[in-house]
Amino acid sequence: MSSQLTLKDAPRSAEFVAGASALLILLLTSIHHAWGAAIYETPWRLHIVFISVPVAIVIAVLLYVSGNGRAWSTAARWMAILVIVGFPIALIGFWEGGFNHLVKNIVFFAHGEAAARAIFPSSIVEMPNDVVFEVTGVMQFGAALYALWKLRLLVWRGV
């Protein structure tokens, strides 16, 4: 059996790539929030794990069903696309990673803590003081861009 991807495998590989990229964001955000909960002594940050795991299961099931060739495959594919765009990409990647980390770090390092605190209240967002926390936070944005790019394979297949 060859490990090369062939054209006949392309439809299933679209589900795999879309699912894997979405699950990467969910895993990354779980690690990021667990790290933050530990270093900042804020156990409430672990809430994301209890959300990410069920969302990951929903994505996996929808993508599995979308590739089985049955009547509901198209509906499952579009539901998976909506869930992937809505939660891992938009909420986690763009909002959490892009705004709460990337923008915060740019403002903090370019304009100082006072400017960053004006946008990001201390009761909600930590100022940059831990490299692992900030790097994994910004990585969520990069992972979302990657997931969005890979999701196009599944979207084009559904058009």
What order do the helices and strands come in, and which of them pair?
Blueprint: H1 10-39, H2 47-66, H3 73-111, H4 113-119, H5 131-158
Explain what this protein looks like in three dimensions:
The protein has one domain (11-158). The chain has 5 helices and no strands. It has helices spanning 10-39, 47-66, 73-111, 113-119, 131-158.
Main sheet specs: none
Q: How far apart are the termini?
A: 32 Å
Number of strands: 0
Q: In percent, how much strand structure appears in the residues?
A: under 5%
The oligomeric state of the chains shown is single chain
Count of helical regions = 5
Helix content: over 70%
Give a summary of the structure in a few sentences.
The protein is an all-alpha fold.
Features:
mainly alpha; 5 helices; 159 residues
